[in-house]
Write a structure and sequence with these properties.
Distance between the termini of chain A: 32 Å
Largest interface: A-B, 94 and 87 residues
Distance between the termini of chain B: 34 Å
Strand content of chain B: under 5%
Order of helices and strands of chain A: HHHHHHHHHHHH
Number of strands of chain B: 0
Shape of chain A: globular
Number of helices of chain B: 11
Largest sheet of chain B: none
Number of helices of chain A: 12
Number of strands of chain A: 0
Oligomer: heterodimer
Radius of gyration of chain A: 24 Å
Structural class of chain A: mainly alpha
Helix content of chain B: over 70%
């Protein structure tokens, strides 16, 4: 590598000019990239704004959804994600604690870690297809709330596990070494030292995974199709609709009105996602204020 | 005192064993359950192949090609942007504590939102700016997936570049290299395996992207190198099959299982490629 520099008899001033130019290029590229995301959000809001009126918004809590309301979709989404969340957050954190802290280093542990990572990267459509195959047909649940919840649980658990592992790995190793050297067992170290240090990060790690899973349309489209559901489900065997599903359904329509409705629905989805993400940020807190962790 | 202590110690040991058994058992159970589900999917796919599921000879090769083509195109578009963003981040460590959670948030935005944007904004723009582009084109999907992948790639790159020992940079600077030369000639070659692993992880993400391709890629089941035409992917094919009529064990269901198992195999291969690169470049940390 070094000879490459020596071989090119370029003047020092040229080399420094080039360095400055590349730095400017990178800064401009970064600025453009950030600008694009802001433009994306602005476009959605502008396009859907006309539809975000009182009708659209008052339909939210009313539970009566005509074609232009998202009340049933919102309640459906929440009813599907909440049971999934109650199972997947503790489950994911237990899996993460075992894989990251408790398991003895061995070949089988390594394979299990790789398998869990792969499950977390598996595209959500596949979860939908497996859900359709197993929950809907094999278990005979039909296209129902129960099938949707099972699918979302399977989607959420590995995602939370992988993020919780990251949160645990951020705790300095010295903390564990101190506890072990004083005779604490692995579980005692985890219970009394690692978890208190990582608690805020574990919560924050879960929130983004929940937000992403809440907005995943692909598994629900496969599972439920685009059936129009006019009411919120009363029981686990009732058909259900969800906000991302509704947005996708509107987007597939050719009419301009429905396209704008899709933008309005996407704006609401984005706002909800941002809210969940912001919760995570608040829980995570400012590390700089509470002492560096790395 | 001594007996009390030893009783205490044995109680601790017993609790330790119990926790290990419960947590480990639960983890292994979840892993095995997932394995059973994948096996069920594979058996349904096998059933479909032997039973002659529809579209296996025509749509499947086109969908495989389209998936790989669109994902590769998106990742190639994303690499320079992500490198630039990551380099800017490493240069300004003070914005890190804001930028890292922001990137994490951007990387996990529900993709149906990007799908709506692709349909509403990017596809019409492409039609006006690039005459000859179809309203539904592989190019539009590539561009939007690239923007979907950039935050993930940036945070992975940033972690890789930030993990380089500062001594390396300082030594090169002390020998008279300019900052750009340090990055391009010293730092990037050193971390090339990790950068490649990060790119592969993003490729896995791009391969599995569903909503954007379903809405904007057009589902034209042909093998074509022209990104201005429509394309079919494994995920968009599954969605189209799902929106059709599905009866228990019908030909649609079998074709979906085949598409899903192909997609799973693609993603798994990419993912393990990434993990192999990572393992080769860094020794397992001692715990």
């Amino acid at each position: 590598m070094i000879p490459a520099i020596v071989d090119q008899p370029r003047r020092l001033a040229d080399r420094h000019r080039r360095s400055r130019r590349s730095r400017a290029t990178r800064a401009v590229a970064t600025g453009i990239a950030s600008g694009v995301y802001i433009a994306f959000a602005a476009h959605l809001i502008v396009r859907g704004f006309g539809w975000l009126d009182l009708d659209f918004l008052t339909a939210l809590p009313s539970r009566f959804a005509d074609q232009t309301g998202i009340g049933a979709a919102l309640t459906g989404s929440v009813m599907m994600i909440v049971p999934a969340l109650l199972v997947a957050i503790p489950g994911g954190i237990i899996v993460a604690m075992y894989l990251e802290e408790l398991a003895a280093p061995s070949r089988s542990t390594r394979i299990l870690r790789h398998w869990m990572n792969l499950l977390a990267t598996t595209p959500p459509v596949i979860h939908g297809i497996v859900g359709l195959l197993v929950a809907t047909l094999d278990l005979g649940l039909g296209r129902s709330l129960a099938a949707g919840t099972l699918t979302l649980t399977a989607l959420l658990l590995p995602r939370i596990a992988i993020r919780a592992r990251g949160a645990l790995a951020e705790v300095p190793a010295a903390l564990r070494h101190h506890a072990w050297s004083l005779g604490a067992s692995r579980w005692q170290t985890l219970r009394h030292h690692v978890i208190p240090a990582a608690r805020r990060h574990l919560l924050a790690a879960s929130t983004v995974a929940v937000g992403r899973t809440f907005g995943d349309a692909a598994p629900l489209v496969v599972l439920g199709g685009l059936i129009w559901v006019a009411a919120s489900p009363a029981g686990p065997h009732d058909p259900v609709t969800a906000l991302p599903l509704e947005v996708f359904g509107w987007a597939t329509r050719p009419e301009v009105d429905f396209r704008q409705l899709a933008a309005a629905g996407a704006t609401v989805l984005l706002a909800l996602y941002t809210f969940i993400w912001a919760l995570g940020w608040i829980w995570r807190g400012d590390d700089a204020k509470q002492g560096a962790r790395r | 005192m001594i007996t009390a202590h030893s009783a205490d110690a044995s109680k601790t040991r017993r609790r330790e064993a119990l926790v290990l058994a419960v947590f480990g058992g639960l983890t292994i159970l979840i892993g095995l359950l997932a394995l059973v589900l994948v096996a069920r999917l594979a058996s349904a796919a096998l059933h479909g192949v032997t039973g002659g599921a529809e579209g296996l000879l025509v749509t499947l090769p086109a969908a495989l090609w389209g998936s790989i083509f669109i994902a590769l195109g998106a990742v190639v578009l994303a690499i320079p942007l992500a490198l630039a963003c990551a380099a800017t981040l490493t240069e300004h460590p003070r914005i890190h504590h804001v930028a890292v959670p922001a990137l994490d948030g951007l990387a996990n935005v529900p993709t149906v939102i990007y799908g709506v944007l692709a349909l509403d904004l990017i596809a019409p723009l492409l039609v006006t700016w690039l005459p000859g582009t179809d309203m539904r084109s592989a190019l539009a999907a590539m561009i939007v997936i690239a923007f979907l992948v950039v935050p993930l790639m940036t945070s992975l790159f940033d972690r890789v570049l930030g993990g380089v020992a500062p001594e390396l940079r300082h030594a090169a600077l002390a020998l008279g290299a300019t900052p750009w030369e340090v990055e391009r000639m010293i730092v990037w070659p050193v971390v090339r395996p990790q950068l490649l692993a990060a790119v592969l992880l993003c490729l896995a993400r791009a391969l599995g992207e569903t909503m954007i391709v379903t809405l904007v890629a057009g589902s034209v089941a042909t093998v074509s190198l022209d990104p201005r035409r429509g394309a079919e992917t494994l995920s968009s094919w599954s969605i189209e099959l799902a929106l059709g009529d599905i009866t228990s064990g019908g030909p649609h269901m079998a074709a979906m299982a085949v598409a899903a198992i192909c997609l799973f195999a693609l993603v798994a291969a990419t993912h393990f490629g990434a993990e192999t690169w990572l393992r080769r470049s860094t020794p397992e940390p001692a715990r």
